[in-house]
Design brief:
Blueprint: H1 7-64, E1 76-77, E2 94-95, H2 123-128, E3 130-138, E4 144-153
Antiparallel strand pairs: 1-2, 3-4
């Protein structure tokens, strides 16, 4: 014969089951809360590290990268021939530009220099074809620092 459960034994068994379920629920809640806090703290740490990295990059970038502020006009000159027949040039075109007071180029820094040459659109210039442009950099004392030449051609 199988003994039938009594009301007291069923109640005790049900109370134990409820207690065990409560303990498990509290344990799961604690683990979930800990996991959520860990996840939020990791995300906040990554955001903080990223913000500090961006701040430091921008700080060093603006502190060490030069600003393109040197825009100087270059007026070209040449020496005319002594001939009275026509006005011709007897020398190469030369231009000179000097940085103002307090302006200097930092040693070891890379710079980009552009010369925008505007020529009249006429047959004489078109027939001339290619020409050579040279840029010579000199120190304040007039010593040659660097020289660069490049061929060019007028765009039609």
């Amino acid at each position: 014969e199988v003994a039938l459960p009594t009301f007291t034994s069923t109640r005790d068994h049900l109370a134990k089951t409820i207690q065990n379920t409560k303990k498990k629920a509290v344990l799961v809640a604690e683990r979930s809360t800990h996991a959520a806090f860990s996840f939020v703290s990791i995300i906040l740490t990554l955001v903080l590290v990223l913000a500090v990295a961006i701040f430091l990059y921008l700080t060093f970038y603006y502190a060490y990268m030069p600003v393109d502020i040197y825009k100087l006009p270059v007026n070209f000159q040449f020496e005319p021939c002594n001939s009275t027949e026509s006005i011709q040039k007897c020398s190469h075109l030369k231009g000179h530009a000097t940085l103002g007071r307090g302006q200097s180029l930092s040693q070891g820094q890379t710079y980009s220099m552009n010369i925008h040459l505007v020529l009249p659109d006429n047959s004489v210039n078109e027939d001339h074809g290619m020409f050579m442009t040279c840029l010579t950099l000199c120190s304040r004392r007039g010593e040659l620092v660097d020289k660069s030449c490049k061929s060019a051609m007028m765009q039609y």
